[in-house]
């Protein structure tokens, strides 16, 4: 449910063509900088964070550059707090990157409390 294109998140909103162009370009430039590994989108409730993040995730996924996403939701217990963030991100990373999967499995084997 936390993945950007999850059926649980349907229908999802995306930025309309021609809107928020400068912001999306700025975020894309941030992600193109190899020295930056993470993009964390914050803002007040209702300001469009999810729409912007979904639009960007969709674009990155089409480019084969999306590592993982987590969309919080007040309506779903598993997505309303931090309890499932890292497990979800680790799962997605493992799906897309076999080397990461091996490292994640080894880390969990060494310390099951990570789950």
TrEMBL record:
Superkingdom of the organism of origin: Eukaryota
A Pfam cross-reference name: NPHP3_N
Keywords assigned: Repeat
Organism in which the protein naturally occurs: Coniophora puteana (strain RWD-64-598)
Signal peptide: none
Protein name: Nephrocystin 3-like N-terminal domain-containing protein
Keyword Repeat: yes
Keyword Repeat: yes
Ranges for domain Nephrocystin 3-like N-terminal: 27-112
